[in-house]
Amino acid sequence: MEKTLKDLFVDEIKDLYNAEKQLTKALPQMAKKVTSEKLKVAFEKHLKETENQITRLEQVFKELDLTPKGKKCEAMEGLIKEGKGLMEEIDKSDTLDAALIAAAQKVEHYEIASYGTVRTYAEQLNFSKSADLLQETLEEESASNENLTELAMKINIEAAGGVEK
Ligand code: FE
Ligand code: FE
Ligand code: FE
Predict the structure, then answer these.
(1) Across residues 62-72, what is the average pLDDT?
(2) Rounded to the nearest whole angstrom, what is the distance from the C-alpha of residue 2 to the centroid of ligand 3?
(3) Do 47 and 24 touch, CB atoms closer than 8 A?
(4) Crossing angle, helix 37-63 and helix 128-159, to 10 degrees?
(5) How many helices (H) and strands (E) does the chain have?
(6) Is the pLDDT score of 130 beyond 60?
(7) pLDDT of residue 163
(8) In this structure, are residues 94 and 35 in contact, taking their beta carbons and an 8 Å threshold?
(9) Distance CA 142, CA 23 (A)
(10) Counting ligands in written order, which one lies closest to the CA of residue 54?
C-alpha cells in the first residue's frame, strides 16, 4: 500500500487518541492500588492531564478536517495488560508501588516517542497549530516521567526495606 507522510501522521494521531483513552480507564485503577499518597496524587494529576491531551488530539483532528476517531493501539493495550498483571501478582505494598512506577514510566516513554514523532510530522506538513498542541503534550509527558523518576528514588528505597524517608 502506498502511503504518504500525511497518512502516517493521521494513523499515528488515531493510535494516540485510542492510547490516551485506554489510559483514562487504567490510571484510576492504578491510583486505587498504590500505597504512597504522593504516587496516588501523581496518577490522579496525570489522569486530568490525559483528559486534556485527548481534547488536544481532537483539536488536531479539527485542523486535519477529520472527525476524531481512534485506531486500537496494541502497544498501549500490552503495556496496560502488564500493569494489570503486576496488580494481580503483588499485594498492596511499597513493592507494588515500585512496580507500578516502572509500568507507568514505560507508558510515558511510549508516549514521548510517539508525540515527538507526530510533533515533527506536523511541523513538516505545516500543520503549525497541531505542532504546538503536540509539543505541549510532549512536555507534559516528559514532566510526568521526570516526576515518576523522583518518586521512584524514594519509593524504591522503601521497597528495598531502607530507612530513608
Ligand atoms: Fe498521555
Ligand atoms: Fe500505538
Ligand atoms: Fe502520559
Answers:
(1) 98
(2) 32
(3) yes
(4) 160
(5) 5, 0
(6) yes
(7) 57
(8) yes
(9) 16
(10) 1
Contact indicator for 39, 94 with CB cutoff of 8 Å: no
Distance 92 CA to ligand 2 centre (A): 29
Q: Which domains does the chain have, with CATH numbers?
A: 5-159 (1.20.1260.10)
What length does the chain have? 165
Could you tell me where the DSSP H helices lie in 71-127? Answer: 74-89, 94-124
- What is the 6 CA–ligand 3 centroid distance (Å)? 24
| Amino acid, res. 58 | E
Which amino acid, 20?
Answer: E
Q: List all residues 6 or more positions away from 3 whose beta carbon is below 8 Å from its beta carbon.
A: none
Q: How far apart are the first and last CA of the chain?
A: 56
**Mean of pLDDT over the chain:** 96
Q: Is residue 119 predicted with pLDDT exceeding 90? A: yes
